[in-house]
Amino acid sequence: PIEEVNTPGMTSIEQVSSFLKMPQSHTLKAVFYVADGKLVFVVIRGDLEVNEVKLKNILKCFELRLATETEVIEAGIVAGFVSPVGISGIKVVADDSITSGTNFVAGANKPDTHLRNVNYPRDFKVDTMADIARAGAGEGCPRCEGKLSSTRGIEVGHVFKLGTFLSEKLGANFIDPAGVSHPIVMGCYGIGLGRLLAAAIEQNHDDKGIIWPLPIAPYHIYLCPLYLENPQVETTAENLYAELEAQGLEVLFDDRKESPGVKFNDADLLGIPFRVTISPRT
C-alpha cells in the first residue's frame, strides 16, 4: 500500500534518493511544461531526462517550453513535492519507463512529504503514455543488439523528418496512382556554415589562434616581405606574388611597412597554412 514519508526540504530527485537511500530509478520525476499556452504535467522515471523533441511531437504543439515557478504555483501545485497521484485538471503525459518498475517514490502533493510504493496504473492515470525519454549511453538499440555510445560533437548539418504534420495543416497533398489524395511526407536539411568553421577551428588551432585547414583556408599563402623600402625586396615580392597568383593560388600580400614582429604576430593570428618571408638577407 501507499505510505507517506516525511522528507523535509527534499525538493529534488537527488535529495530524495539520497535521503531515502534508494536509486533515482526508483523515483518518479515531475516536470511541468507549457504547450501552446496550456500546462502539461510530465511524469518520468527519476534517473531519466525528458526529450523535448519527442514530447513536442507527441503533443503536436507549435510552442513548448518549461513552465515557470509562478505558473506552477498559480495552478495550485506544491512545487518540489508534486505527485501524479490525485492530480486533476491537468493533462498528464508519462514516459513508458514508469511501466518497467514497481513501488516508486513520488511526491505527495503537500509540503515536505513523499509517497512510497506508488504504482501505475493502480494509483494514478495518465492521458498519454509514450517514449519521451532522452536516450543515454549504454542503452540498447530497439532494432539490434547494439548499445548506444555517447560522445561530444558539433552539429554541422542536420536532416529532419517532418512527416505530415505541416502538410496536413497546409493542405499540401499528392495524388497516388490510384487517384487517392495523401498528405506529402516532408523533410528538410541544412548545413551550418558557422558551425562548420567552429568545428574546423576547434580541431585546428594552437595557443596563438586558428590554423586553417588548406581546403577551407581564406588564403593559401601569406606573403610577408620585410623592409619594403628595399627596392630588391619590393620587386622580388611583387614578382613572386604575380607568379603564385598565376598558378591559381590565393595569396595574401602583406605590403604594410610594419616591423617584422608586427607582421609575424599577425601571421600567427591569421593562421594561413603557408607563410613566405622575403627580406634583404633571403
From TrEMBL:
Domain YbaK/aminoacyl-tRNA synthetase-associated: 7-119
SUPFAM superfamilies from the UniProt entry: Class II aaRS ABD-related, Class II aaRS and biotin synthetases, YbaK/ProRS associated domain
Domain Anticodon-binding as annotated: residue spans: 231-281
Residues of the Aminoacyl-tRNA synthetase class II (G/ P/ S/T) domain: 132-204
GO molecular function (one): ATP binding
Gene Ontology CC entries for this record: cytosol
GO terms (BP aspect): prolyl-tRNA aminoacylation
Gene3D superfamilies, per database record: Anticodon-binding domain, Bira Bifunctional Protein, Domain 2, YbaK/aminoacyl-tRNA synthetase-associated domain
Full protein name: Aminoacyl-transfer RNA synthetases class-II family profile domain-containing protein
